[in-house]
Amino acid sequence: MLELAILGLLCETPMHGYELRKELTTKLGAFRAAISYGTLYPTLRRLRLAGLISELADDDSAAGAPPLTSRRGRVVYKITAEGKERLTALLACTGPETYDDEGFGVHFAFFARTDRATRLRILEGRRRRIEERREGLRDVLGRAAERLDTYTLALQRHGLDACEREVRWLEELIAHERSGLPQPTDHTPPGDSRSGRQP
To answer: What is the pTM of this model?
Structure first.
């Protein structure tokens, strides 16, 4: 999933590692914790060795999009033609990995680059996954609520509430995709602090 996120951002503009980490945090902040350099740089090295991205000196980057900072001597990462092909293939994926928490978040962050049919399959798969989680929590609360301590019970109910909110959010998105109309401007996931709503 980090590979998809890096290629998606570098497809927009070349970036330094610091800039890339900042943009990844901004883009995926609603879905996952901040990405560490210990995770980012090994992935960048792997992508470079695979020919999916290339490195160029800061002062050589003017041929592409200008970097976000003017400090000289730093490495700028740029997507290659092979990287763009790989990005297209990753964005077209609709398998179970795209329904999981991390996978869904990354794919959703790049929905603007995917076609409607792909978006719909991922949204419907995610809804099924969350509905399964919701039913599991309902089952636990129905069978064992009286045996749970106050805090565990509160945690289970919080999880159930979160699932129910996400299912409603997904159903709204799915309805818009099926209608063929533009999506509403507020795509904020349930519980995201940027929406002003409480989790």
So the answer is: 0.78
